[in-house]
Amino acid sequence: MKAFLIKYDRIISVLAVILGVFVILNTLIEAGVFSNYIRGILILVMIAIIMATSLNIATGFLGQLVLGHAGFMALGAYGAALSAIALREVIPSDLVLFLVATAIAMAISLLAGLVVGTPALRLRGDYLGIMTLGFGEIVKVILTNLEVTNGAQGLTRIPRIMSFPVAYFTMAVVVVIIALFMNSRHGRAMISIREDEIASESVGINVTRYKIIGFLMAAMFGGVGGSVYAFHIGFLSPTTFGFVRSIDIFVIVVLGGMGSLSGAVIAASVLTFLPEFLRDFANYRLLVYSALLVLTMLFRPQGLMGTKEIVISFRRFSDKIRAFWMKHRKTKAIEGGTDHGNP
Amino acid sequence: MDYVFKQLINALNTGSIYALVAIGYTMVYGIIRLINFAHGDVMMFGAYFAFIFATSLPFSDTAGGVILIMLLSMAAAAIMGVLIEKIAYKRLRRAPRISALITAIGMSLFLQNLALLIFKAEPKVMPALVPKTRVDFFGLDIPVLTLYTFGFSVLFMVLLTLFVRKTRPGKAMRAVSQDQDAARLMGINVNSVISLTFALGSALGALGGVFYSLSYSQVYPTLGVMPGLKAFVAAVLGGIGNIGGAMLGGYLIGLLETVTNGFLSIVWKEATRWTDAFVFAVLIFVLLFKPSGILGKHVKEKV
Question: Which domain holds residue B35?
């Protein structure tokens, strides 16, 4: 039993934390402690986490500047919404409908990522940023002008089938997949590309291939975020997915720490909740955001967490407690000893 | 034929504005390799400065008053540009480029929201400093405003070119853009050259903003976003870092917009709604096939 616990410590700990947080939040919602309003914000937090962790693959781990992440979110949202409207009659179950629509959203975002990413990743740094920015704007123009998306008036009649558990577990699955990937050989290859492209190429890492994989993953999970958003809000308008949205996601990644998933999760939660509490100062929200962004770059360019992660592990936790306890006891014993010597 | 001329004159008008703003992007990029995202918002503030001066100064509707307002707004924007550089960018000169770029984005958002707080979201009506009449110019019927826009843009562009090519500070500027460290060893005060670059670029951007707000008769906090992005596209199209390229790119983007709005819309009714997409598509194609732009030099990456 003990050997089993030690061997699978990380998996057990992570699953326990995910389930634990879920049970706490869900009970609070079900018990009515959290109002419907807070439930809505919690779902927005889940969306922000999905968007930030997915952008973190490309910007944080791969080191590529992407300023059009809202473009992928928009494609995912519209793709999911339109397929859900079309399939509503065929699929009676909300959950299955969500899963099917999300799969379609992922496919669309992936395709868009392939079309943009393959040529764009030849560019470096700021040029890539500008190109993805151009992509985001083009997506917005296309969505405004298409008939099937109902143009600038926005898409209505989207079934609002998002529940807190679905949003939560979608988020958990996305984050766990990204975390597992980043801890694998492939993830380390991506991090090495961020640190030094030429050096990683010289040790045999296929830089182009990993850049495209990272970019595609970011695009695909961005589509998932869009899908959750569409079913939560129930209304889509092209202007929601403009440059400001891309920057919002980007700010979360930068403040959380580029290359830190736990940083992205914390920053997404704080930055989604904070403005809701500061409703009275709504006008100052973006002013404070932008000042924060500049100040972060000036004084703490690595963000809240840098590239560090909060490691969820019961074993490590209990080890730490034990170590603390032992140390504490030892100092007590020593103190006692000296007391005895000097009455 | 009249229609064609009218459209070409339109192209000159918008092209001049893009060219003026694009120069600021290209100068800053040339000297510290930074895409100054805040430049579009300096342009917006330039328009607001002109609005403030036009509504508060008593003699704003005389020809001399117009020029005074322009020069005052340019000076105010120049100070603003220098301050932005000193506060936000200076510390990051040796930092990774992504940090500087994020700071520039932050600065851009900050300025927009500052304008939103100070001037509120509702568009302000820009007083018609230049009479909205048309004049006969060598047999062509041209709005007076276009004459002003084009005339002053060309004047300032010529002045800038002369400044960069013929004067000592201009020479210092070119030296810093080639090699900052070597320039410092030659006794050039790099900091003041960078400040000068920001001042000149911001002043020209503000001039663009003044003309932009005059031709649309409106000033609002997000005024600089779209023209700023398009001017950036123009700078990339012409070859970023190259002042002549920025001018050329500006007029080309102006022409492209006019062609979609004025001519393509005749055969395809919805063309005007796709103009922005066309401009960004141009950007993407330029970046993919000739990232150095039309007049730029290709720089090999060093290991």
Answer: 19-224
Name the domain count of chain B.
Answer: 1
What is the Cα B126 distance to its own chain's centre?
Answer: 19
Q: What value of ipTM does the predicted structure carry?
A: 0.80
Cβ distance B281 to A138 less than 8 Å, yes or no, reads yes
Optimal mutation site among A124, A141, A143, A146, interface B, most CBs of chain B within 10 A? A141
Asked if residue B277 is part of any domain, the answer here is no
pTM of the predicted structure, to 2 decimals = 0.85
Residue B294 lies in a domain: no
Q: Give residues 121 to 140 of A whose Cβ lies within 8 Å of B.
A: 122-123, 125-127, 129-131, 133-135, 137-138
pLDDT digit string (tens) for chain A, length 343 residues:
777 777 788 888 889 999 999 999 999 999 988 888 999 999 999 999 999 999 999 999 998 889 899 999 999 999 999 999 999 888 888 899 999 999 999 999 999 999 888 887 777 777 788 888 889 989 998 999 888 888 888 998 899 989 999 999 999 999 999 999 999 999 999 999 998 889 999 999 999 899 999 999 999 999 999 999 999 999 999 999 988 899 889 989 988 988 899 999 999 999 888 877 777 777 777 788 788 888 888 888 888 888 788 887 888 888 888 888 888 776 666 655 444 444 4
H-type alpha helices, chain B: 2-32, 39-56, 63-84, 97-119, 144-166, 168-178, 180-185, 190-216, 225-238, 243-258, 265-267, 275-289
- Flag whether B201 is in a domain: yes
Residues of chain A positioned with their CB less than 8 A from the CB of B91: 298
Which residue of chain B is at minimal alpha-carbon distance from A120?
B288
Domain contains B232:
no
CA-CA distances (angstroms) from residue B81 to A244, B74, B78, B242, B290? Answer: 23, 10, 5, 20, 30
Q: Which of A119, A129, A142 sits opposite B101 (nearest CB)?
A: A129
Nearest-neighbour CA in chain B from A209: distance (Å): 18
Please, is A231 exposed, middle or buried when counting C-beta atoms within 10 Å of its C-beta (0-12, 13-18, 19+)? buried
Q: Are B45 and B57 in contact (CB under 8 A)?
A: no
Contact A65 B277 (CB under 8 A): no
A267: amino acid identity, one letter: A
